[in-house]
Amino acid sequence: MFASGKKQSLRKEYDVVVAGGGASGLIAAKAAARNGAKTLLVERQGCLGGVGTTCYVAQYIGFFNGELQAVWGTPNEFLKEIVKAGGSDGFTYYTMAEASASPINIYNFPFNPEVVKYVADDFIQEENIHVLFHAQVADALVQDGTISGVALQCVGGRIEVAAKAIVDATGDATVAHSAGVRFLSDSSEIDQKQPTSLVFRLSNVNVKRFRSIPRERKRELALAGIKKGEIFWESLSFMSTPGGHDAICLMSRIRGLDMLDAVDLSEAEYVGRRQVQSIVKFLQENVDGFEKAVLANIAARVGVRETRRIHGRHVLTLEDILEDRQFPDSVALGCGPVDVHDPNGSGITLMMPERPWQIPMRSLLPDGIEGLIVTGRAISATHEANAGSRHMATAMALGEAAGTMAAIAAEGGASTAGLDPKVVRGRLRAQSAATSVEDCHRPDG
Ligand SMILES: Cc1cc2nc3c(=O)[nH]c(=O)nc-3n(C[C@H](O)[C@H](O)[C@H](O)COP(=O)(O)OP(=O)(O)OC[C@H]3O[C@@H](n4cnc5c(N)ncnc54)[C@H](O)[C@@H]3O)c2cc1C
């Protein structure tokens, strides 16, 4: 726990507790604190950033839909800090899944995950935020249908903390699960869930040489590798850290395991590392630019694309996204692509909606429980809609909404059920966040 580098004591009660310090939780905590809430951010790892840092997924997607930037506010401020610290050169236009059957051109924001770790530490320094690392939210404390706090499993034992509002930003909706919330998906549909991947980084890569290989040749190589069982999906895409001669590779695919089952999750780490070994050998032996590549890192844990999705007061659907449905309680905008990694095969389906889409506040509010807001990849959305709303930029935009909602709910004991969308949207706009396409056109870039 820290605040301006000074050691502080943990309170028994906070206005807002944010569970999980990934893309969504980091921004949620900042937004809650800026709205005056005494906030505790609880993270089970030793750093913030979630999948972007711990799992080494080193590019933010979802800030732009086509040419239009649709995520602004606090997430945009965070990006500026990363650039200022030398952790990124900013947005680039790149071809996603280049060796797949249907690649797509999008803006991404590649970054150095190690720099993002300390930028996040500084970004979260606010008078009224406490951060607790190496603490796992184990249970929701629920009384008469209202969540009144959380129990944390820490190195020294179990600690209970009371809060007026809780933001569940764990990705797995762990707090919601413990609170008895209904889900749209759980362990029963493993074969319909997006696969898991273990990311790794190679150093000493001749990036320029690789980039000059024609797309058709890359596809040929990928398909040949899959046929021989040496690589696992139709993409040879990778990111490089700014100025680096390295390749951060999202090339593994772990299927048919339940990421909510402790034994399967352990197996996934094992399978992932076996896949990494095989992919590295394949790249070194077959792909231009990788001849002298050296395995530099394997991410600390597998990256899980999909587990639980709550049953909220609105279920976001693919039709909502593709038909550009307007919601009076829109609190965040999502951007393409909608990318569905084949749960059982080696392909990917990519769709680019015409416009950024609205995400209603109701998709963050679970049915039947008071005081709980769910953000990030576990919001109430169908499998297909989740494929569009799970990107880290969208997770951040949702985090800004969730933190703001939690702070408003905590003010004067107002309830999450009674949140007024006009008030929430007004606050978000005042924070420079976009809740409709009309909010997106900015002179400040
Ligand atoms: C392999 C892979 C590739 C991807 N590629 C991209 C990409 O290129 N670009 C992109 O934008 N998105 C990508 N995504 C999607 C994106 O990374 C996630 O959907 C996004 O990170 C979701 O953000 P989040 O904040 O909801 O969850 P997370 O980033 O998962 O953050 C959740 C945080 O909560 C913490 N936590 C979990 N449980 C607890 C608990 N009980 N107590 C305390 N802390 C807890 C975790 O440690 C973590 O820090 C990818 C995802 C995967 C897995």
Estimate the strand proportion: 15-25%
Give every kind of bound small molecule, once each.
flavin-adenine dinucleotide
CATH topology (level 3) name of the largest domain: FAD/NAD(P)-binding domain
Instruction: Give me the CATH superfamily of the largest domain.
Output: FAD/NAD(P)-binding domain
Let me know the largest β-sheet: 7 strands, mixed
Kindly provide the radius of gyration, computed on alpha-carbon positions and rounded to a whole number of angstroms.
Answer: 21 Å
The CATH architecture of the largest domain: 3-Layer(bba) Sandwich
Number of distinct beta strands: 22
Category from helices, strands and their pairing: alpha+beta
Share of helical residues:
25-40%
Pfam family, one: FAD_oxidored
InterPro entries: FAD/NAD-bd_sf, HdrA-like
GO molecular function, one term: oxidoreductase activity
Keywords: 4Fe-4S, Iron, Iron-sulfur, Metal-binding, Oxidoreductase
What key attributes describe this structure?
iron, 11 helices, 4Fe-4S, alpha+beta, metal-binding, 7-stranded mixed β-sheet, globular, 4-stranded antiparallel β-sheet, FAD/NAD(P)-binding domain, iron-sulfur, Alpha-Beta Plaits, binds flavin-adenine dinucleotide
Task: Please write out the topology.
Blueprint: E1 13-19, H1 23-34, E2 39-42, E3 59-61, E4 64-65, E5 68-69, H2 73-84, E6 92-96, E7 104-110, H3 113-123, E8 129-132, E9 136-143, E10 146-154, E11 157-168, H4 174-178, E12 183-185, E13 200-203, H5 207-211, H6 215-227, E14 238-239, E15 247-249, H7 262-286, E16 294-298, E17 309-310, H8 318-322, E18 330-334, E19 338-341, E20 348-351, E21 357-360, E22 372-374, H9 383-389, H10 392-410, H11 421-430
Parallel strand pairs: 1-2, 1-11, 2-8, 11-22
Antiparallel strand pairs: 3-7, 4-5, 6-7, 9-10, 10-11, 12-17, 13-15, 13-16, 14-15, 18-21, 19-20
Bound molecules: flavin-adenine dinucleotide.
Flavin-adenine dinucleotide is lined by residues 19-25, 42-45, 50-51, 57, 59-62, 136-137, 169-172, 174, 197, 250, 303-305, 376-377, 390-393, 395.
